[in-house]
Automatic annotation (TrEMBL), chains A, B:
Superkingdom of the source species: Eukaryota
Pfam families given in the database record: Lipase_GDSL
InterPro entries recorded: GDSL, Iah1-like, SGNH_hydro_sf
Stated name of the protein: SGNH hydrolase-type esterase domain-containing protein
Organism for this UniProt entry: Colocasia esculenta
Family indicated by similarity: Belongs to the 'GDSL' lipolytic enzyme family.
PANTHER family in the record: ISOAMYL ACETATE-HYDROLYZING ESTERASE 1, ISOAMYL ACETATE-HYDROLYZING ESTERASE 1 HOMOLOG
Keywords in alphabetical order: Hydrolase
MF annotations from Gene Ontology: hydrolase activity, acting on ester bonds
Length: 255, 255
């Protein structure tokens, strides 16, 4: 039975199975090893995420042995629960919306953002102590892109998100990861190492292009690898074709 | 809690979360509605699939309420099980390997292929009576592509799969679907309606290009839609951004 990798976040997670998406790439990377489960909620900030986290994650603990109903007296208590291998927590792009512009209803003050991230980590660690919790900072913001592709009418001529604000939230996210001793992908910093990041990685100043998705995939896969979660180290589900004896294929399926 | 769509098949399923893959496209199509679960086994034929089906599908019945452990006396018996919405069964490309060529160890005689498909449908229907079982025929074969991209040394100069053989298995698959009264996507026929299908849809004479993936996605999504499974009719997991009152966002999360 396969373990799970849960992707919990906002629209950048919800969209991650679109063309060239980082979620699909992770599912392909972990093919035959891990079930990648999508829990992306477009527009959500950490305040809302904290409200719904228990519901969003309900049912995501793999339960073995359900095929053999009634195998143990007493029922559920004897079943073996298997926690997810890892959960990515990828919020902040909405929290960082400015409080006096058109996306103000999604804004969360930075002190509360820090507190909410800690609370999400605690909730996950209480539920699944062995699970790797991986934070991802919000991406940088291309303000020109935000003005060209507004989500709603924006007569002010001012972007509802700025790169400076996203950077402050990204720094807060990195600080929370250090305090909670969990790994973090600093996407805000990483992307800005590349010349022309504004258009190369962001299709509307906020959401990812195919190249932007590739960076997220590579960074997340590398962090997971550093925590022992890679295709090379995880067992495959059922025999691989290369392990099947052409002279006696059925013998491979006996155990 | 989200229901599942399970993709059970061979390499064309296992690869379906690769770049432009039909599995990813389904996951994106059903975003916020359905968890798409990948159970693709490269090289497997129906004989092997039947041997492993119980193990491959173990744990894939969603179980609600596990978050509230011990909420009901007696344990597991009181929990509410939720079967998958649908399972795609996509085998035949390996069964149709010719019995006297280099992939002979994967060959399954056509009468046994029919029998095995019926057995897989019965197993699924017994496990989950309400679940839609959707058969998919093997794709057509571009023999030139198979000779240019052999999986193993092939000194014979003869392809290990032919389009004629794939067509016979595709017809058998359609016949099984009619007999068992389950829907089927006749991919073998559908693809050959397009001029230049050999290179447009198949990258090595057997596996799918991006355009080939798109056809599988469109056909599967349309069949599921005909059986009531579409993004328009399925409920979303948690409130959509458009449903959240900007003046009082938290009220949306109260129920």
């Amino acid at each position: 039975m396969r373990p799970k990798l849960i992707l919990f976040g906002d629209s950048i997670t919800e969209e991650s199975f679109g063309e060239g998406g980082w979620g699909s790439a992770l599912a392909h990377h972990f093919s035959r090893k891990v079930d990648v489960v999508l829990r992306g909620y477009s527009g959500y900030n950490t305040r809302w995420a904290l409200k719904v986290a228990e519901r969003a994650l309900d049912g995501l603990q793999a339960e073995e042995g359900e095929g053999s109903a009634g195998s143990a007296p007493g029922g559920g208590g004897d079943r073996h629960h298997r926690p997810p291998l890892a959960v990515t927590v990828f919020f902040g792009a909405n929290d960082a919306s400015l409080s006096d512009r058109i996306s103000a209803f999604q804004h969360v003050p930075i002190a509360e953002y820090r507190h909410n991230l800690h609370a999400l980590i605690s909730l996950l660690k209480k539920r699944w102590p062995s699970t790797t919790v991986l934070l991802i900072t919000p991406p940088p913001i291309d303000e020109d892109g935000r003005l060209r592709h507004p989500f709603a009418e924006n007569p002010s001529g001012l972007p509802e998100r700025t790169n400076e604000s996203a950077g402050a939230y990204a720094n807060a996210c990195v600080a929370v990861a250090m305090e909670a001793n969990v790994p973090v992908v600093d996407l805000w910093s990483k992307m800005q190492l590349f010349l022309g990041w504004e258009k190369a990685f962001l299709r509307d100043g906020l959401h990812l292009t195919a190249d932007g998705n590739r960076i997220v995939f590579e960074e997340v896969a590398e962090k997971l690898r550093q925590h022992g979660l890679s295709p090379e180290t995880l067992p495959a589900d059922l025999p691989l074709l290369s392990e099947i004896d052409p002279l006696d294929p059925l013998r491979s399926f006996e155990n």
